[in-house]
Design a protein that fits this description.
139 residues, globular, mainly alpha, 8 helices
Length: 139
């Protein structure tokens, strides 16, 4: 587990101390979903929920450690299966360089996890290469 403590019994909204108003009625399903997911306890978020929030850059301070722990826990099984093609990994890899620069220990954790994987899909491999090019000091 990453050293940063994340109280998974609390929601992003609680952890951030920032209560968003309800989205406007004409909002898209994505916007309504993100608002709702911010109010859910982190322990109750599914992998797809994590992917959705991370892809929208919501709650990254809290969710990246959780996502990275999940990816690290599942990496051995994925590597044994010989194929890793994961939307959560893609969402994590494609966060802005500034996110990783502000949390170098998370960037190193991600790089170490990716090194455990084999047979990455071509599009995930391209994302790994772009991440490493932007973060050459992960080692």
């Amino acid at each position: 587990m990453l050293p940063e403590f994340v109280d998974r019994n609390r929601s992003i909204e609680e952890l951030d101390g920032d209560q968003w108003p309800d989205p406007p009625e004409e909002s898209t399903t994505l916007v309504r979903s993100v608002h709702e997911l911010r109010r859910r306890a982190i322990k109750d978020l599914t992998v797809e929920d994590l992917r959705r929030l991370i892809a929208q850059d919501v709650g990254l301070h809290w969710l990246l450690p959780v996502a990275l722990d999940f990816l690290r826990e599942t990496a051995p099984q994925e590597a044994a299966a010989g194929w890793y093609d994961d939307d959560l990994l893609s969402a994590v890899l494609t966060r802005k360089e500034s996110v990783w620069r502000s949390a170098p220990q998370l960037a190193r954790h991600l790089d170490d996890t990716v090194r455990m994987l084999t047979d990455l899909s071509p599009y995930i491999q391209r994302e790994v290469e772009a991440f490493r090019a932007a973060m050459p000091d992960t080692r």
